Amino acid sequence: MSAELISGKDLATNIKKDLAVEVEELKKQGVTPHLTVVLVGHDPASESYVKGKEKACAETGMGSNVIRLDETISEDELIQTVDKLNKDDAVHGILVQLPLPDHIDEQKIIDLIDPEKDVDGFHPVNIGRLVTEQEGMVSCTPLGIMEMLDSKNIEIQGKNAVVVGASNIVGKPVAQLLLNRGATITNCHIYTEDLKAHTKMADILVVAVGKAHLITADHVKEGAAVIDVGINRLEDGSMTGDVDFENVKEKASYISPVPGGVGPMTITILLKNTIIACKRQENVE
Ligand code: NAP
Questions:
Q1: In-domain check, residue 205
Q2: What is the C-alpha to C-alpha distance for residues 276 and 137, in angstroms, rounded to an integer?
């Protein structure tokens, strides 16, 4: 058996076309969704993510700008910047690129962003809304994963979903989204004693750890849907996921690749979230 590929790249391209149409319609009503990204310092990975976000906004006709701040900026100055953006009616989405320099309390900054403009979905209010199934902003990578599963009509209700990795930004929210859709969830982490015993039970297996090829064919149930979130750089500079793609694809029914899987979906959902935030703030459809 060879699994069907879930190409996040193709799906993202299609979603972006729809978003461009939606932006066009909003512009006719005099509204342009606008995302502001705050970048502190010059971390090369962050610089590259921010460039990708700017490019994607431009492709869909949305407005965007990047506020670049020196890495020596004080916590108070960053607080003032976020406060200004919260009050700026022209800004619908605020994203503070993480990580922040060590002298700045990351959670304090996240807590300060207006939950209605929190397009990353990291604010505790939005996490609470996710858990209690209320309308809010849901973080981009987890939502992208759900769209990937839905694009193939993969059944979720009543299925065993196992998420490996329990971070606040990927593992926990995706487990919650799967629970909200009626899956029976298991969330594995560093202290999980027998990882294989859990993953082998999974109809849906989501892996978000950051360890190249942690998941081998032995970990996977025949016919499972496998989503690989991991991004790992190999010595030769190439990128690979947390799943041993070549061997697991022979056992799974669906599998997402790295690169070209979850990555492109994350940025696309960020655009989608900004449009949702814009519509709610401007009271337009
Ligand atoms: P993270 O904050 O480092 O979390 C990793 C999680 O994996 C933690 O919960 C950790 O457990 C768990 N873990 C570590 N070793 C494990 C093991 N051997 N078995 C089971 N669980 C283990 O990372 P993250 O931010 O969630 O990101 C995870 C991966 O996804 C990274 O490679 C990241 O680059 C990638 N990522 C990709 C996208 C994308 O758009 N494609 C977006 C975000 C992240 P403890 O909490 O107990 O330590």
A1: yes
A2: 9
Same domain, 178 and 75: no
Which of 209, 216, 256, 262 most suits a substitution to test ligand 1, by most atoms within 8 Å of the C-beta?
A: 209
- CA 228 to centroid of ligand 1, rounded, Å: 11
pTM over 0.90: yes
Integer Cα distance of 183 and 92 in angstroms: 33
Q: Write out pLDDT tens, residues 129-188.
A: 999 999 999 999 999 999 999 999 999 999 999 999 999 999 999 999 999 999 999 999
Residue range of the domain that includes 88: 30-114
Does any domain span residue 135?
Answer: no
Residues 106 and 183 in one domain: no
